[in-house]
Amino acid sequence: MLKIDQPILVDNILPSNENKNLLNILATKHYYIASDDYSNAYLTAYDNKTPHVGFCFCLYDEIDERFKKFNLNDPLSIYVRIITSIILDKTKFTNPKSFSRIHCNYYLKNQKGILHKDREEDNFLSIVYTPLETDGGTMINDIFYKDVMGQAKVFKSNWNHKGVSCKENKARSSINIILKY
């Protein structure tokens, strides 16, 4: 359906002062410990054998009843809509049906992302936007893409990927946007 065979890197989406404003908004959100299975989230938080995969803030999720309401007036929502519009314009991916999910991720040093797919179906596009340059990044189909301020990594949602935490920097932050086509 979507014709893409490798990640597309889109640079210079927002200027540095707007990325700093965005980071300030992200820093004030109420994050929770990320987990694929919230009935056993305590394992991620406390079990030494289970990797701590970082923190998440869900702005919208069409599947999860808790996050189905999308507040269009929230400053973060406005940034996400602008970022998405710029990416769609630069990549020429037009007319998505809707947002499927919007997650904000926050990783401290040495936290470990888990390899996963955002969606199994072929009609979804994932965007990982990084408002801060760090030595962390995103692994997509076994290739590491470093965090670059103002850059988006665009790829099919059914590709394997994971967040890679920092080794030297204090933390990394990203916004994961899934679009339905």
Query: Which range does the strand content fall in?
Result: 25-35%
The neighbouring-strand order within the major sheet is 1-8-5-10-4-3-2
Rg measurement, Å: 15 Å
Unreliable stretches, pLDDT < 50, 5 or more residues?
none
Main sheet makeup: 7 strands, antiparallel
Termini gap = 8 Å
- The general outline is globular
Mean pLDDT over the full residue set: 94
Count the E strands: 10
Q: Helical segment tally?
A: 3
Range of helix content: 10-25%
Return the string of H and E elements: EHEHEHEEEEEEE
Structural class: alpha+beta
Provide structural commentary.
There is one protein chain. With 181 residues, the chain is α+β, with helices and mostly antiparallel strands. The chain contains 3 helices and 10 strands, in the order E-H-E-H-E-H-E-E-E-E-E-E-E. The protein has helices at residues 16-27, 41-46, 75-91, and strands at residues 8-10, 32-33, 55-61, 98-108, 124-130, 137-140, 143-146, 151-156, 161-164, 171-180. The strands form 2 sheets. The chain has a 7-stranded antiparallel sheet with strand order 1-8-5-10-4-3-2. A 3-stranded antiparallel sheet has the order 7-6-9, with no helix packed on it. It is globular. The chain starts with 7 loop residues before the first strand and ends with a strand. The mean pLDDT is 94.
